Amino acid sequence: MGVREELIDHVPRLRRYARALVHNRELADDLVQDTLERALRHARQYHDGTDLRAWLFTIMHNAFVNQMRSAGMRAPHVPMDDDTLSDGLPGADWHSTANPAGSLEVRDLDYALQRLPAEQREVVLLVGLESMSYAEVALALGIPVGTVMSRLSRGRERLRSLMAGVKPEARLRVVR
Question: Domains in the chain, please, with CATH?
């Protein structure tokens, strides 16, 4: 099976990660489309026997970073409908009126994830949502494994604080 055929197997993972990353269905679909287009355009650069998933997430990460850089030059995207709260986390629609507490927890978690710095959110989502190993995340993001562990630790701690309703402490430097 070639790269083109294998790409289809990874589309659900890419969509799930993109939606959690950008918190908007349309922008997430655009990010996935950009990722797949780049992967197809550069398929000859993929080496058989290496991790296709990590390669695709590397492409998505780079596309996301590029979009974030150019977003600073554009007006923010404003969704046309109000159902974006359920677009955040995959499986967010599992809750219903039968489980209002679960619904609130999912919304709180989604809200907290969106408050993380992008580099922490990426690592938390790849490890927690995509079940990638630290080495796979390091490869996908192009950072050392130690940086993955550090960002994950800080991201998890910040998530705990946000979920508990505690404002993260501001780190002030004392100048003497």
Answer: 1-74+99-162 (1.20.140.160)
